């Protein structure tokens, strides 16, 4: 393999191993040594690609969030108006949440660490604010299109984000996979019904 | 002081000190030694009252949850029907959440620990299921009264609980105290609008 390809393969191996180790042991308990052993790479190779365990974790989290961003953008591009875009978010939620479920415990650990670590705090607040901003725009457009009723668009967006985060956490407590898909879908539809402009 | 009173005063001093230490340092970092020093009690006295740091933490969490339970029951007793009871929950939410905000980081740390500790898991799932059960009953009654529209009452209850948990977490990220009161109130009203039986 050319050097550049080998380097990328190493990076991917580290990310894959890290995902597994974080998942099994949690963020705090996971060690760089264990991740290196699992990926079959040296510590030197690890630190060539990632400055710290935290940096590696942030990379994983960003990749996950970027994937959700892409799904949201595609869904919006395909929807005729904001009302149907939001309903499709609700329909999609179950699936997103089901695949996200593995990642949530890490996210949670990270969240509790954010209190004591300024860098973690920033890394957490930034995507949170981004989703808030994205959905605030969606709400504004929906109001302009007459499909979302007139209300504070930022509060409406925050409600949607809060419900989503709450549903993700709830999924962790629920052993039944079917409910992990059906409850979020139903929950978001209930909220959408509250947000929708009453017909007539 | 008689022995029994002194014993209760010691217990309260430990609880007060623990609340402060958990808040400042987080659950994992907090040590029994530090809590004892802060409460000005011996380790012997500590272990007379609490078996472990975990037991102490559970006591604090249960006291907090019991307080919310009492508020909910009082509110329900005072409301003419379920529709207005739920709207009053929404109105109360801002205040509950504002006082809860200090406790949330601990709760969160606890949640991430639940994955690795069966006892913690049980302690967390139990109140969660209790709130779910309480609100499922509320929803059923509301449907019987014709003020909540016909839908799966358990999913409706789970939606309310999920939104509440999500709002609690969101409050942590929000530096503006006014939004910590106003956003939850607004958010829960939006959901209630989705749950309410349409007039006519």
Topology:
2 copies of one chain form a homodimer.
Chain A lengths: L2 H23 L6 H8 L3 H7 L3 H26 L3 H19 L3 H11 L3 H27 L8 H21 L3 H19 L5
Helix pairs in contact in A: 1-2, 4-5, 5-8, 5-9, 6-7, 7-8, 8-9
Oligomer: homodimer
List SSEs of chain A in N-to-C order: HHHHHHHHH
Whole-Å distance between the termini of chain A? 65 Å
Query: What's the alpha carbon Rg of chain A, rounded to whole Å?
Result: 19 Å
Largest interface: A-B, 41 and 41 residues
Specify the biggest β-sheet of chain A: none
Unreliable parts of chain A: none
Mean pLDDT of chain A: 83
How is this structure best described in words?
The structure is a homodimer of 200-residue chains. With 200 residues, chain A is mainly α. Chain A is 80% helix and 0% strand. Chain A contains 9 helices and no strands. Chain A has helices at 3-25, 32-39, 43-49, 53-78, 82-100, 104-114, 118-144, 153-173, 177-195. Chain A is elongated and about 60 Å long. The model of chain A has no long low-confidence stretch (mean pLDDT 83). The interface between A and B is large, with 41 and 41 residues.
Notable characteristics:
homodimer, 200 residues, mainly alpha, 9 helices, 80% helix, elongated
Précis, in short:
2 copies of one chain form a homodimer. Chain A is mainly alpha-helical and 200 residues long. Chain A is 80% helix and 0% strand.
């Amino acid at each position: 393999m050319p050097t550049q390809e080998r380097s990328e393969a190493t990076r991917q191996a580290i990310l894959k191993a890290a995902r597994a180790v974080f998942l099994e042991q949690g963020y705090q308990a996971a060690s760089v040594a264990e991740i290196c052993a699992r990926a079959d790479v040296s510590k030197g190779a690890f630190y060539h690609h990632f400055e710290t365990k935290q940096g590696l974790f942030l990379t994983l989290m960003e990749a996950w969030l970027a994937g959700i961003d892409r799904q949201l953008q595609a869904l919006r591009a395909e929807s005729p108006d904001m009302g149907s875009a939001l309903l499709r978010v609700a329909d999609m939620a179950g699936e997103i949440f089901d695949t996200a479920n593995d990642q949530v415990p890490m996210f949670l650990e990270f969240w509790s660490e954010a209190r004591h670590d300024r860098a973690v705090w920033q890394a957490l607040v930034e995507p949170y604010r981004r989703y808030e901003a994205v959905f605030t725009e969606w709400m504004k457009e929906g109001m302009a299109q007459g499909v979302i009723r007139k209300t504070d668009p930022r509060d409406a967006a925050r409600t949607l984000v809060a419900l989503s985060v709450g549903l993700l956490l709830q999924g962790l407590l629920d052993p039944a996979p079917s409910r992990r898909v059906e409850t979020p879908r139903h929950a978001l539809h209930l909220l959408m019904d509250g947000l929708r402009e009453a017909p007539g």
